[in-house]
Amino acid sequence: MVDWDDNTSRANLAAVGIGDMGNLAAYAFAPAILVTPLGAFSVLTGALASSYFLQERLGALDRLAIAICLMGTLIVVLHAPADAEIETAATIFHYAVQPTFLCYVAAVIAFSLLMVFKIAPVYGRNSPLVYLSVCSVVGSISVMSTKAFGIALKLTFSGENQFTNLSTYAFPLIMAGCIVIQMHYFNMALSLFPSSVVNPLYYGLFTAATLCASVALFNGLNASGVVTILSLMCGLLLIFAGVYLLSYSRSGDHRFQSLSDGDESETMSLA
């Protein structure tokens, strides 16, 4: 619930709104395989902002993680393949009803139902992968819907009205439905497991699922060769590693472990 009398709450809501609009614009103008990994910047920005505003110290592991993320991001930006040319909303709908993407959507639905009704009741409290896998695969559909709606808006603003096509209205509905499901299970994962575990896992799974959805929608990576694909994969792995290291270093779990080990050693020496 937003407290409209609180300036901080209003500023937070405005920042979220601006971020979402920027996200929509990014998916409209750039490939999803490029935009999604750059979400790592939210992790980096959080670490740098906490260092500046909250006076939290950035340790050597933090700086190493940030450097790894930036290196991976640079590789992804340099080697990210372009999407296929899309001239109308009908073109996107044509891609969406191809057998490859329909099979992907069917697999997402079947997998999500299996995880929610069969796996989650048994293993949901033991592993964050249960709920995060549902978030990720459903989120990949929301990314494709966001991209489709963003392109429709871009074409409309350029003078080619896409709202005469019924598929344009379907995109935001699918996007909203997927986001609701996505956020529900993401919050469930956060309620059961620490954010230092949830965030890097979700980032990696979500990026991988988005890559699969993009490949299914556009029938391939549209890359120029094996070297480009391998470079892209290396860049993604570097970003994953950097996000994990940054989350781990800022969680404090390893510090607590070190302290407990130190206390245990001290107790043994005193004994």
TrEMBL record:
Where do transmembrane segments lie in this chain? 24-48, 60-80, 92-117, 129-149, 169-189, 201-221, 227-246
InterPro entries of this UniProt entry? EmrE-like, Mg_trans_NIPA
- Give start-end of the signal peptide: none
- Keyword Transmembrane among record annotations: yes
Q: Give the top-rank taxon of the lineage listed in the UniProt record for this protein.
A: Eukaryota
Which GO terms of the cellular component aspect does the record hold?
Answer: membrane
Q: Which Gene Ontology MF annotations are present?
A: magnesium ion transmembrane transporter activity
Membrane-protein topology? Multi-pass membrane protein
Q: Which UniProt keywords apply?
A: Membrane, Transmembrane, Transmembrane helix
Cell location: Membrane
**What's the protein called, per UniProt?**
DUF803 domain membrane protein
Protein source organism: Colletotrichum tofieldiae
